[in-house]
Design a protein that fits this description.
- This protein is an all-beta fold.
- The chain contains no helices and 11 strands.
- It has a 6-stranded antiparallel β-sheet, with no helix packed on it.
Length: 121
């Protein structure tokens, strides 16, 4: 049995600009159909607007607050919120709080840089 821990996961920066610590997926515990990672946006940080060609994404905010644009909709988001992002849907996240914005990201199929298409600022 393999067990991953967030405090031992090696971080990397995704194409959208967020810092990711993958717990399960292509670079950590091997998975076939999904990946799970913790993303962090520092105070004032934002991702580059992007979409995923194949992956459906789930965001679950674990700490902090921010603003999320999903397609044409924009909303304030806070710890405890869960958002489903369908494949092909442009999205962008801003940290508008006074501390780090942390969220769990689940992607199916597993996250890979080649599935990310940057569409704006």
């Amino acid at each position: 049995m393999e067990i991953a821990r967030i405090d031992k996961a090696e971080g990397f920066i995704t194409d959208d600009g967020s810092t990711i610590h993958e717990l399960a997926g292509r670079v950590s515990l091997p998975t076939v159909n999904q990946s799970l990672a913790q993303a962090t946006l520092e105070v004032g940080g934002e991702t580059t607007e992007h979409f995923h060609i194949e992956a459906e994404e789930i965001y679950y905010l674990t700490s902090g607050s921010g603003r999320l644009r999903l397609g044409d909709d924009e909303s304030e988001v806070n710890a405890g919120d869960c958002i489903v992002i369908p494949p092909g849907t442009p999205h962008k996240l801003w940290n508008t709080g006074d501390g780090p914005l942390r969220l769990l990201c689940c992607c199916s199929p597993p996250y890979r840089h080649e599935d990310t298409v940057l569409v704006g600022g």
